[in-house]
Every structure is written in structure tokens, then in C-alpha cells.
Recover the amino acids of this structure.
């Protein structure tokens, strides 16, 4: 089933390490992937016009859920979920699932390559040296109060404006980030944990999406 399922919603637990039989130490990120409940199956022949499954993850109080959402969960025969996301699949893959079906970590296998998407840690307002790794200005020859500035951002005559996308100070972090081609090192089906080699974006406890790697390349 590992090839049929394209991804799951998960929660970043934290990082740890373990030793291989040959003595190599491997740093991994532990991700709780599921159980996710299939809330809806969408097909291109239906009203939605595309093929996907809608997944629910985590628990939520009914008092914090709207009546339309409660009806949606009840229709699928599922408990109230905190997070709801869609996974695009082919028509054959989408129709192989049914509403109310639970999907766990056993859809992944050791050695598989995955892409993990999450929200990076927010750093607040940052200058160009921290945000864009600028070198800073010289600290001699009479330089005053200009050590960490970004320098000139344009001229009055040509081009007469600041180009869009210019690297400048601003909000750093708290952005959608995808780490591609991470290898699954271990799968714990009892606790719905998978361990992927390396780090993934976000703080411990944050929501992540684990998908089958789009550009899988063997290391």
C-alpha cells in the first residue's frame, strides 16, 4: 500500500538519533503520521472535478467546531478532527479509499523517499544580515552607524524604482517550507511514528505533511 498512498498529515515530535549495526550514527526526526481518517473522496466525474481524498488528523472539541463541520464529520462516520487537508491522487487511487477509513504509518516503508512540508519557526523582524546573510559594511575609514545596513537599493534616474523582490529587512521565518527527498529510516506502526533522516521545518508539535517524494533520488 506504500505506493498507493501519496501522503499523510502528521505532527513533528522531535529529533533523536540511533546507531546502525555498523556503528554509524543517524540523526532523525520523529513524525507522528496518523492515524488519519478519510473524510471525503473526490473524483473528476463528480461535482468537484478533480481526484483527491480529504484527510482529518488530531482531535478537537465539538464546542470549537461549527455545525456544518460537525455534519461533515458525522457524514464520514468520523470523530471531530482538528486538521483537515486534501491529498491529490489519481482516479484509481482515490476511489480505492472510502470515507471513514483510517490510514496509519504502515503506508510508509523503510528506505522510501518522502517530502515533508511544514511551517518554519518564526524569527520576527530581522535585518538583511540575519535574514539574507549579507556581509555588512566595512568597519573602518570613518564608517558611522552603517555597519549592518543593506546598502543602496536603487537610484533616482535608472531604474527610478525599487525592483520587486529586492532583499530587504522584514519578517523572517513562519513560512511554508518543504524538505525534499528525505529517507525513511524506521517505521513504528504501534505508535504511528516514522523516522526520517535529517531535520524537517517547524517546532516540536507543529503540523507537517508527509508525501511521497516527487523527485526521489537515491543518496
Amino acid at each position: 500500500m506504500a505506493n498507493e498512498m501519496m501522503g499523510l498529515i502528521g505532527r513533528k515530535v522531535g529529533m533523536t538519533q540511533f546507531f546502525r549495526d555498523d556503528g554509524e550514527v543517524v540523526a532523525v526526526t520523529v513524525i507522528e503520521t496518523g492515524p488519519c481518517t478519510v473524510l471525503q473522496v473526490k473524483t473528476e466525474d463528480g461535482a468537484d472535478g478533480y481526484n483527491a481524498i480529504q484527510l482529518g488528523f488530531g482531535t478537537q472539541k465539538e464546542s470549537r467546531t461549527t455545525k456544518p463541520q460537525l455534519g461533515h464529520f458525522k457524514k464520514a462516520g468520523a470523530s471531530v478532527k482538528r486538521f483537515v487537508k486534501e491529498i491529490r491522487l489519481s482516479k484509481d487511487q482515490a476511489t480505492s479509499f472510502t470515507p471513514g477509513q483510517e490510514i496509519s504509518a504502515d503506508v510508509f516503508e523503510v528506505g522510501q523517499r518522502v517530502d515533508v512540508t511544514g511551517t518554519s519557526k518564526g524569527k520576527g523582524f530581522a535585518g538583511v544580515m540575519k535574514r539574507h546573510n549579507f556581509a555588512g559594511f566595512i568597519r573602518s575609514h570613518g564608517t558611522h552607524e552603517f555597519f549592518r545596513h543593506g546598502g543602496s537599493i536603487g537610484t533616482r534616474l535608472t531604474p527610478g524604482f525599487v525592483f520587486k523582490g529586492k532583499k530587504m529587512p522584514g519578517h523572517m521565518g513562519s513560512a511554508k517550507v518543504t524538505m525534499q527527498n528525505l529517507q525513511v529510516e524506521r517505521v513504528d506502526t504501534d505508535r504511528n511514528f516514522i523516522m526520517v533522516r535529517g531535520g524537517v521545518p517547524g517546532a516540536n508539535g507543529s503540523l507537517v505533511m508527509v508525501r511521497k517524494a516527487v523527485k526521489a533520488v537515491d543518496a
